[in-house]
Amino acid sequence: MLKVQGIETWYGAIQALKGVSLEVKQGEIVALLGANGAGKSTTIKTITGMLKPAKGTIEFLGQEITSREVEDIAEAGIACVPEGRHIFPGLSVIDNLMLGATPRKNPSQPDLDRDLERVFHLFPILQEFRDRLGWQLSGGQQQMLAIGRGLMSAAKLLLLDEPSLGLAPVLVQEVFKVIKQINKAGTTILLVEQNARMALLIANRGYVLETGKMSLTDTAANLLANEDMKAHYLGAHAHVKEARQRRLNERPSA
Amino acid sequence: MNTRAAKPLILALLVVAVLVFPLAVTSNYWLNLVNLSISFSIACLGLNIVLGYAGQLSLAQAAFWGVGAYTSALLTTGLGWPVWPCMLIAFIVAGLFGVCLGIPTLKLTGHYLAMTTIGFGIILQLILINAIWLTGGSDGITKIPSPWLGSLELKDPSTFFYVAAFSLLLLTWASIRLKDSRVGRAFLAVQGNEMAAGTMGIDTTVYKITAFALSAAYAGYGGALFAHSGSHYISPDTFSFDQSVVLLAMAVLGGNGSAIGAIVGATLLTLVPEVLRFLKDSYMMVYAAGIVAVMIFMPGGIAGLVKGLPIALRLRAWWNAGSAATQQVAVSVATGDGIGGRPIPAKAANAGSNGTLLSVKGLAKHFGGLKAVDGVDMEVRRGEIQALIGPNGSGKTTILNMLSGLYVPTTGEISLEGTVITGRKPHVITAHGMARTFQNIRLFGELTVLDNVLIGQHCHSKAGVVPSVLQPASQQAEEAGMRKKALEMLEFVGLRGKEFAQANSLPYGQQRLLELARALASDPKILLLDEPAAGLNANETEALIDLLFRIRDQGITILLVEHDMSLVMNVSDHITVLNFGKKIAEGAAEAIEKNQEVIDAYLGTEVGNA
Amino acid sequence: MDLSINFQLATAGLAMGSIYALVALGFVLIFNAVSVVNFAQGEFVMVPAFVAVWLMDVLKIPFPLTYVITVIFMGVFGIVFQRIAYYPLRNRTFLPVIIATIGVSIFLKNAAQMVFGAEPFLMHRPTPPDVLKLAGVFIDPQYIVIIVCTLALLAFQYFFFEKTSLGKKMQATAQDKDMARLLGIRVATMIAITFAYSSILGAAAGILVGPIFYVTKEMGGMLGLKAFCSTILGGFGSVPGAILGGIFLGVIEVFAAFYISSGYRDAFAFIILILVLLFRPQGFFGEKIAEKA
Hints:
Structural class of chain C: mainly alpha
Largest sheet of chain C: 2 strands, antiparallel
Largest interface: B-C, 36 and 42 residues
Strand order of the largest sheet of chain B: 8-9-10-5-11-12
Low-confidence stretches of chain C: 287-293
CATH topology of the largest domain in chain B: ABC transporter involved in vitamin B12 uptake, BtuC
Low-confidence stretches of chain B: 338-344, 346-352
Number of helices of chain B: 27
Structural class of chain B: alpha/beta
Helix content of chain B: 55-70%
Radius of gyration of chain B: 28 Å
Oligomer: heterotrimer
Number of domains of chain B: 2
Distance between the termini of chain C: 39 Å
Mean pLDDT of chain B: 87
Strand content of chain B: 5-15%
Shape of chain B: elongated
Order of helices and strands of chain C: HHHHEEHHHHHHHH
Largest sheet of chain B: 6 strands, mixed
Shape of chain C: globular
Strand order of the largest sheet of chain C: 1-2
Radius of gyration of chain C: 19 Å
């Protein structure tokens, strides 16, 4: 469904992505993992069109979307729940949700109502708070609202950027359960997460980014079992250990 | 010819030009205009200081111009005092009004600052109109006397021209000298990056107020010149918000930050409308459209346009070749002084005693309901390299910001070498020996590499405004000493040869090195580094690791926040791990690597079955 | 305390406050949409006033049609303004933008003078010039018209922004432009509509206030500056704040001019501004309303 090839994206003078490629097939949950600063959010921003890559291509449903406008990409069927939620603070829950349906082409009222019901079924608290304003919700509720809003777009591909960020562990569990349900109901998902374990428990496959490059990719099960994962996160690569040993031998420590 | 011989020659040429000018231009009409444009030029020179140097927008300049005009006019007509001292008093009084404006605007930036200065200017103008007992109100003040030179009354535009022109030369010279001095650098630092300026030891409050005071004083003097010339009449209508806008347009047209540009802009916008008079009604429209066009196409003004021309570059290179800075750099290359990395004066005495250098107790920072840092105790031992790590949002940068004085802690205590520094201002903390670098590089991008490192030494140098302008031997010696140290810093980090490059023209990795050099220049006991490896490639990271060890060998303690684990594991003597604002582990690298809580924090935990 | 005087002052204050509120509103909407402080906002009031006067005096067009044409003209004006003045400056830092919008303001003022001459005009009143006697007090009926029309406009605006889908999209654009784009909202169109609507608010202010003051090229200057003060008073970026700030300023100004000093009338707005910025820079309604808006 989504094919990203050889993306190089720059933030001013810094090259954030140095040739990133990944694929998401229909019906999958794919996890995009990596330490902070590795380039996960940059990848998402490049896919949605908020950042334009210097090199590389992005294909969605067989059409190239690399140079298209953000609004057009949304209408093509990619919805994004960005890092930090970004719900509209001055608008009500119901308004936020209905705005999520903007990219749809002439949806019928019954369709909209049905999708709204679906969101309320997944997140009952949103129905209870339907008239509350965005800023009045707690972090976890905002996250649910952001995901619900993403669902209202009836998108084919849903990009979730760090949905567990800042949430208490219990809520994280809730959110991941819902993500799995959404996927079962037919939405393909690309999930960016710092909490690698939780993500891999629900994903089919995973990619690990390290300073702007893909360093590891495998099925979720294999990644979970992979001892090397620690190395990619905690800097415990073999060559690093060697260097450290070498230095310790050369210099007296304080 | 070299610049040493050229300077007196240029001065002589200027003096001759001034003396000869009124003989060449004899029309009183044009001479009056020239005097007027000089008066405006001086006001624009003032604006250039507060806006061009210090980056503070002032739309009250015409009001200060008016304060100066009225002060001098009232003292000479009302009290009958002689003109010369009254013009000086006008300079001072206007400066004091500038201090009054500087104080309420300290925390304001952007539109708030603009509006406040507008309001201040309008209020001043209304006082001029309404305080009839003092100012004569809308009738204005007439028959303002001319200055006397011995027995000669300088009342013709041609004779007054000398007063105006020599004043202009003097004030321009002062402005130019000010820019390339410790005070000038401090102004430019406040404009370039106010937050970084504070952490480099610059008391931004004092410098902002000083900038307003100087700019108002210049404008006041210009207003006094205006009062004692031309029609020898002033009324409040002249000193309006519209006039402040014109002054701003002149400064920006000339090129923000350029003293000569201010003069060019003021002269053009005074004389050109006269030339355009044939356009009658539409000339103001052309003028306004021109301003908009300049803003769209030439935001650097005329100076910006000229700077890039080949002839300007060559002139500049020739001029700079004669500067003390260039010569010192050249000399130090030739004689090998500073090469070989003469070490930073090692704190050898302290390096022996392995005690606690930095102690943090119960530190917390709450933002409303969010507990970014929730009760952290930490100790950094003298001479060690300690890393502060943790996943996104764990509070690392917040702690760094509290240590360097950018945030005031909600509770807790921070002490450096026994001195409590909790909640002190950044420049005070820097003076106590704590320097830092930033995650998103906060260099003074428009300044040279050398200037950036010189600014780092601000808190250990002392030249104020007057020595910076007059540049007596003591100030020159101080500058030379600072340059020497700066060159040593640059040598140490490996940036020799790039002294005069503009900081933001350096490649990313070198900008990071420059930030380090700048921080080291403040003679810190402890260096706080915020993600020093961010954006560096593998080779640069290796070089950084070596540099960090060399810094530590000089006796400087390092506390770094970092995500790049290979760097952390390689370099740290001690690691503290945070999660959700609390410390969850600390110890040596091997222990941390195996600590289950740390692994969970980074890799995530299995929460129930999903 | 003479009650009737105070009642008169209060009405005049509410009327002036309504005008400030309308201009402040136009200001805030543009700022929320594109983060530009439009120093030419006062001219958005001056231009339609001249247009209306010209239509009425020269072309002898009756009131209602004049108003409609003026409003449509300003809508188009807003879109043109956005294209010519804002668009080329959209990536510049704030100093060139401030100077450029001031430049546009000067240009418009002098264009008006060139087209209409320097003589002040008196706009024909839609209301009879005889004062109204209300509860024993003499009131200029135009004040009542201003207050009522402003209330109607605010009601319309509330309805538009809160109850229509387009209004919601515009709110979303103002609150989080990037997120709005991610949802497929055509942000460029929203911005154009914002400028058009802001100009229409100026048209309303110009038509309402024209009959009270002389219509001159300077009429917009102070108005714009005081509207800016109003937005800061209310909490910069807050829509209800701008409205309440404007009304508050209008009332305070009228009372202070009468009781304290009429010579310093223009100073009060700025004195209050400086005090607020010193002691409560987030304005009256501070964070809470800012979050809502």
